[in-house]
Amino acid sequence: MVQKKRLKTVISNLVLIVLAIVMISSIADAWRLETWKIGSSSLSFRVHQDFGTDSWGHMSQAAQKWNAEAGRTLISVSAIRHTNVNYPAKDSNNYIYRLDKGLKADYVGQGTIYLSSDGRTVIEADININTYHDFANSAQPNKYDVFTLVLHEFGHVVGLNHIIIKVGETTYDTAVMWPAQEHNKEKRDLKPDDKAGLAERYK
Question: What is the H or E stretch that residue 146 is in?
Answer without folding.
Answer: helix 146-157
